[in-house]
């Protein structure tokens, strides 16, 4: 690990391109050494070489398929064994290809394994490690569609809602333990996810598609400002606060010993 102005080591999943690669570059420039995780070892090595040259940081490559239990084991074991890790970005994920019923039900198994099982495994592992030493940061990349289930592929929306809820729940559970959590909720972002889903991004309204560098810069600014949930394109944070206030009002009546009078069943 480099010692000059080091903030420890950041482990970034899905780091070979797009949001993950951009997080890696930005974090290296902030003084973090890096562990880059993805399936494509060649792309990881190329990125690692560039970042070492440009930033002078130590950059390790950890090829792993996080859609498999074996791949999750590889990364979880590194989180436990490497005491230099102070931050993790759970970015690896799969997007959908069309409406929910355009694919067979089993076609979503790989998405569930990567978007949910891997994120849960690595988030909980990192939370154990960071809570034990009283410091660490966990950044989970969710999606704005977690708040808009009517507008997108159902299974994908559900996976991102899981990521958001997991982050919020653990942040509450570990409050005061020195662990910082952030869920990032991007909208449309110009990355390879469009190609993989067979979507031409030029058909989307261009005022809805954010450049990946802008997304990551905004997300890191939100982290600096202490936001638990960051929506990079949201102009007024008061809108999120109002949503949270409404949710807490519902929470006060979510569990009672009698049905509400409006149902007429008491």
UniProtKB/TrEMBL annotation:
CDD domains annotated for this entry? SDR_c
Q: For this UniProt record, give its keywords in alphabetical order, as a comma-separated list.
A: Oxidoreductase
Output the Gene Ontology terms for molecular function: oxidoreductase activity
Signal sequence span per UniProt? none
* InterPro entries in alphabetical order: KR_dom, NAD(P)-bd_dom_sf, Sc_DH/Rdtase_CS, SDR_fam
Which part of the chain is the Ketoreductase domain? Answer: 8-187
Q: Which PANTHER family match?
A: ALCOHOL DEHYDROGENASE
Q: Name the chain's protein.
A: SDR family oxidoreductase
Q: Which source organism does the UniProt entry give?
A: Niveispirillum cyanobacteriorum
């Amino acid at each position: 690990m480099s010692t000059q102005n080091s903030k420890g080591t950041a482990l970034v999943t899905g780091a070979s391109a797009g949001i993950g690669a951009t997080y890696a570059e930005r974090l290296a420039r902030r003084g973090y050494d890096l562990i880059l995780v993805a399936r494509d070892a060649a792309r990881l090595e190329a990125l690692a070489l560039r970042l070492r040259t440009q930033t002078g940081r130590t950059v390790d490559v950890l090829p792993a398929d996080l859609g498999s239990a074996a791949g999750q084991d590889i990364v979880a074991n590194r989180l436990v064994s490497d005491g230099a890790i102070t931050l993790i970005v759970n970015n690896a994920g799969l997007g959908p290809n069309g409406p929910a019923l355009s694919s067979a039900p089993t076609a979503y198994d790989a998405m569930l394994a990567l978007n949910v099982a891997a994120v849960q495994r690595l988030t909980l592992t990192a939370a154990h490690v960071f809570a034990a030493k009283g410091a660490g940061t966990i950044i989970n990349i969710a999606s704005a569609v977690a708040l808009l289930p009517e507008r997108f592929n159902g299974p994908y929306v559900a996976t991102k809602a899981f990521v958001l809820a997991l982050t919020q729940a653990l942040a509450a559970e570990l409050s005061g333990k020195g662990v910082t959590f952030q869920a990032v909720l991007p909208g449309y972002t110009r990355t390879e996810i469009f190609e993989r889903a067979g979507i031409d991004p030029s058909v989307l309204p261009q005022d809805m598609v954010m450049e990946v560098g802008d997304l990551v810069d905004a997300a890191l600014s939100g982290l600096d400002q202490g936001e638990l949930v960051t929506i990079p394109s949201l102009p007024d944070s008061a809108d999120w606060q109002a949503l949270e206030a409404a949710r807490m009002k519902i929470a006060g009546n979510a569990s009672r010993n009698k049905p509400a009078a409006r149902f007429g069943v008491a």
